[in-house]
Specification:
Strand order of the largest sheet: 2-1-5-4-3-6-7
Protein name: NXNL1 protein
Radius of gyration: 23 Å
InterPro entries: RdCVF (IPR029520), Thioredoxin-like_fold (IPR012336), Thioredoxin-like_sf (IPR036249), Thioredoxin_domain (IPR013766)
Number of strands: 7
Order of helices and strands: EEHEHEHEHEEHHHH
Distance between the termini: 73 Å
CATH superfamily: Glutaredoxin
CATH class: Alpha Beta
Number of domains: 1
Shape: elongated
Helix content: 40-55%
Strand content: 5-15%
Domain Thioredoxin: 1-142
């Protein structure tokens, strides 16, 4: 998927940092379904749909709803008239969203490539860049988060359920020794409890 963004720049939502295509973006997009959301805060239909998309995304990725974040990433491609409008809109959306910088010519390239003529539009892509759904707006409205299962199967994603949601956030895995440390801790606690019980029994019998 990173090939689609070779030489391009994406912005992390609500931060000034650019997402480095070659390394960070590659990891961000690897083995994930990608949503390209074409929209505008000035568009009445977008104003109706955007809250639905926000809820859809959060229910699949936020720890409040799921123990493990789904393998999903979203890039906002705006038709906002000003950078301030784009920024104001993104501040109301999930922090995990990425965005094409305002005024970037890449926006037009994406519109042409995926034949986006009107907004809102949500293009669903496999990790290799192949289109799963040309415009999933109605599917998301109708099915909600349930439609992700179909996209996941179509994308043939490798199941990464062993990754916790917070690991997806910072792209780092827990130390491989962490489960061992926790197991030792539990065993240690059990031994303490047993020793305490034995000591109490000895005291009671004497």
């Amino acid at each position: 998927m990173a090939a689609l963004f070779t030489g391009k720049v994406l912005m992390a939502n609500r931060e000034q940092d650019e997402v480095e295509t070659e390394r960070e973006l590659g990891r961000a997009l690897e083995n994930k379904v990608l949503l390209l959301y074409f929209g505008s805060e000035q568009c009445p239909r977008c104003r109706q749909f955007s809250p639905l998309l926000k809820d859809f995304f959060l229910r699949l990725t936020d720890e409040f709803y799921v123990e493990r974040a789904s393998q999903l990433v979203l890039v906002y491609v705006s038709r906002d008239e000003t950078e301030e409008q784009q920024s104001a809109f993104l501040r109301t959306m999930p922090k995990r969203w990425l965005a094409v910088p305002f005024g970037d010519a890449f926006k037009r390239e994406l519109e042409l490539r995926f034949a986006v003529s009107e907004v809102p539009a949500v293009v669903v892509l496999k990790p290799n860049g192949e289109v799963i759904v040309g415009n999933a707006v109605e599917e998301i409205r109708r099915m909600g988060p349930a439609c992700f299962r179909n996209w996941q199967e179509a994308a043939e994603l490798v199941d990464r359920n062993f990754l916790l949601a917070e690991d997806v956030d910072d792209w780092t895995r827990r130390s491989i020794t962490d489960p061992i440390r926790r197991l030792k801790y539990k065993l240690g606690k059990k031994m303490e409890t047993k020793n305490k019980e034995r000591k109490e029994e000895d005291e009671a019998s004497s």
